[in-house]
């Protein structure tokens, strides 16, 4: 569904990504792991057109989207749950969700909203409250709901479990798996490496802008370098 080929990007003189090759097959969950500053968020931003690639290609369902405008990329079927959630704290829960559908002009937006409320009943209960009054976990649910409102085929999640209590983290991972089982392909950036490898089919390890390791997630989880660097040592 998504293929990055020899993708390079950065910020001025900072070469954050160097010749990245990465594939997300349709229907799968692919996890991207790596230390702070490795370039994970930059991968997400460049896919979404938030920063322009310096070289290389981004193919979505065979179509080259590198350098395309973000609204175009969203309309093609990609959606990002950004790092830090970016909830509009002075808008209501409902308004935040509606923002996710602002590019749609079909007549199924209300039906999709009801589906989001079924998945996250707390969002329906709180729909008139301001986004900023929600707990961290509820804000993450809202950020995921908002992203789903654009009906993505490929959902990008950037550190969805960050800063959340363990029970809430478990909920978030369950929700990601459910969304995937219902047919949405997922590219997941996570610092919770153990969980990220458990739910993924494939995984990539990013080290200072380069892919150092990739393969089936079960194999990556057994790799001694990954165990030492990200899983707290040997088994
Ligand atoms: N807006 C920016 N301007 C300049 N440099 C940036 C900017 N954003 C990120 N960088 C740099 O690019 C590199 C990759 O950053 P990025 O945010 O993609 O890493 P990350 O893997 O998402 O890290 P984290 O785990 O902390 O979220 C880092 O060296 C970072 O300092
Ligand atoms: Mg990041």
First-last Cα distance: 34 Å
Using the alpha-carbon principal axes, give the shape: globular
Mean pLDDT, as a whole number? 96
What fraction of the residues are assigned to beta strands by DSSP?
A: 25-35%
**Count of individual helical segments:** 10
Strands of the largest sheet, in order across it? 6-7-8-3-9-10
Which class of secondary structure composition applies to the elements?
Answer: alpha/beta
Following the backbone from N to C, one meets helices and strands in this order, namely EEEHEEHEHHHHEHEHEEHH
Main sheet: strands, sense, barrel: 6 strands, mixed
Helix content: 25-40%
Q: What CATH first level of the domain at 2-86 and 153-230 would be assigned?
A: Alpha Beta
Ligand set: adenosine-5'-triphosphate, magnesium ion
Uncertain runs are none
Spell out the CATH superfamily of the domain at 2-86 and 153-230.
P-loop containing nucleotide triphosphate hydrolases
Strand tally: 10
Organism: Pelosinus fermentans B4
Keywords: Amino-acid transport, ATP-binding, Nucleotide-binding, Transport
Domain ABC transporter: 2-233
Family: Belongs to the ABC transporter superfamily.
Summarize the entry for a quick read.
With 235 residues, this protein is an alpha/beta fold.
């Amino acid at each position: 569904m998504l293929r990055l080929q020899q993708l390079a990007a950065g910020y001025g003189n900072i070469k954050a990504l160097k010749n990245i090759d990465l594939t997300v097959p349709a229907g799968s969950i692919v996890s991207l792991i790596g230390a702070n500053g490795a370039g994970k968020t930059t991968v997400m931003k460049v896919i979404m057109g938030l920063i322009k690639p310096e070289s290389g290609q981004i193919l979505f369902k065979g179509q080259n989207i590198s350098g395309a405008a973000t609204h175009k990329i969203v309309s093609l079927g990609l959606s990002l749950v950004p790092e830090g959630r970016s909830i509009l704290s002075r808008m209501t829960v409902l308004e935040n969700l509606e923002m996710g559908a602002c590019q749609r002009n079909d007549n199924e937006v209300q039906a999709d909203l009801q589906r989001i409320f079924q998945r996250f009943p707390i969002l329906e209960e709180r729909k008139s409250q301001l986004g900023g009054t929600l707990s961290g976990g509820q804000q993450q649910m809202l950020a995921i709901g908002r992203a789903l409102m654009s009906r993505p085929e490929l959902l990008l999640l950037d550190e969805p479990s960050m800063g959340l209590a363990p029970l809430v983290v478990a909920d978030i991972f369950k929700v990601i798996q459910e969304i995937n089982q219902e047919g949405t392909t997922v590219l997941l950036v996570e610092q919770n490496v153990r969980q990220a490898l458990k739910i993924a089919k494939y995984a990539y390890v990013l080290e200072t802008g380069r892919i150092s390791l990739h393969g089936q997630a079960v194999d990556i989880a057994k790799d001694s370098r990954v165990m030492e660097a990200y899983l707290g040592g040997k088994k």
